[in-house]
Design a protein that fits this description.
flat, 2 strands, two-stranded antiparallel ribbon, Arp2/3 complex 21 kDa subunit ARPC3, mainly alpha
């Protein structure tokens, strides 16, 4: 049993947190299931299956295990229905592979659903901007994702290296903030952002790729960070080092999920933009290739045809 995985196991959190998790998860599920249409069920089932399968491949890192989360993908494609897919996926993981726990099902649902909903809101907000597909905006999104990724790693590593085994102190937080303002580290972050922008331009991806990359990466970092906060604040045993290591361990997966969501969003925006809640004309500027209806025959042609028919009758 993994005590400090993204899906928290039983026996780790105190009872107030467990009851609060079930209460909040119930609210999320009620809102998610409100006025659910029959035609939405296949998409929810598909994303639930993807969410479940992604958890089958684990990478063991010390006391924890890491795997793809796909919270960003679930949020962007399902929107407010994301809680249904997350809850069913987590329940299947507990029943079939004993990953997570029954008593922590509510907390785990909240931890995974909140970043998914934020990913949906961010995508719906940004994709409506007319300049989002311009080269400058694409470079900004990729560079912002690289900066956030690097600085998140610096902040987490600094906390791990300056934290006692039993508690976090104010000095560790202050030192971590100071490290974020270090000129050398900021310079390194800018260099990494420049490298990421250059790589993205060489790949010549679709205009939607940078937006998906940023949202996919942020969803992983938010999920791991929220899970870390829950473990530190509501854990029966105060051992902050392992939750912080959890965030660091998921940094590579944040990049992987950003790339995955970037390709998925780019593909769907080209072939099925309705799944993303966008239209071809306003977002991709794809011309309307629907053939125009045939024009009705003119009156002159009709008169000519009638005259021809009358002449034929006279000849007979």
């Amino acid at each position: 049993m993994m005590l400090f995985a993204v899906h928290i196991s039983d026996g780790v959190l105190t009872w107030p947190w467990l009851w609060g998790g079930f209460a909040l998860a119930g609210i999320l599920l009620a809102v998610s299931a409100w006025r659910l249409r029959e035609d939405e069920i296949p998409r929810i089932a598909l994303l639930t299956a993807a969410f479940f399968v992604s958890s089958l491949i684990h990478v063991r890192v010390g006391p924890t295990s890491i795997h793809l989360l796909l919270t960003g993908l679930v949020g962007v494609l399902l929107g407010t229905r994301a809680a249904l897919a997350v809850f069913v996926g987590l329940l299947l993981q507990v029943i079939l592979i004993q990953h997570g726990g029954y008593f922590t099902l509510g907390v785990n649902t909240c931890v995974m659903t909140a970043p998914a909903l934020l990913a949906c809101a961010l995508f719906q907000l940004l994709h409506r901007l007319p300049w989002i597909k311009e080269p400058t905006a694409r470079a900004f999104l990729v560079g912002a994702g690289a900066l956030i990724w690097f600085l998140s790693g610096v902040y987490s590593i600094t906390l791990v290296c300056n934290t006692a085994l039993t508690a976090l102190d104010e000095a560790a937080f202050q030192l971590a903030k100071e490290r974020l303002l270090d000129p050398w580290l900021l310079g390194a972050a800018v260099v990494i952002a420049g490298i990421a922008i250059a790589i993205e331009r060489r790949l010549e991806n679709t205009p939607e790729f940078p937006l998906g990359f940023l949202i996919g990466e942020l969803s992983v970092l938010l999920t791991a960070g929220l899970n870390c906060v829950v473990l530190i604040a509501g854990g029966e045993t105060h051992w902050p080092t392992a939750p912080l290591l959890l965030v660091i361990a998921h940094l590579p997966f944040a990049v992987v999920e950003g790339v995955i969501l970037g390709f998925v969003v780019g593909f769907l925006a080209t072939v099925k933009p309705e799944m993303l809640g966008i239209t071809r004309k306003t977002y991709l500027d794809i011309p309307d290739l629907t053939p125009a209806p045939a024009a009705p025959p003119s009156e002159a042609i009709m008169v000519k045809d009638t005259s021809f028919m009358n002449q034929a009758e006279r000849d007979r």
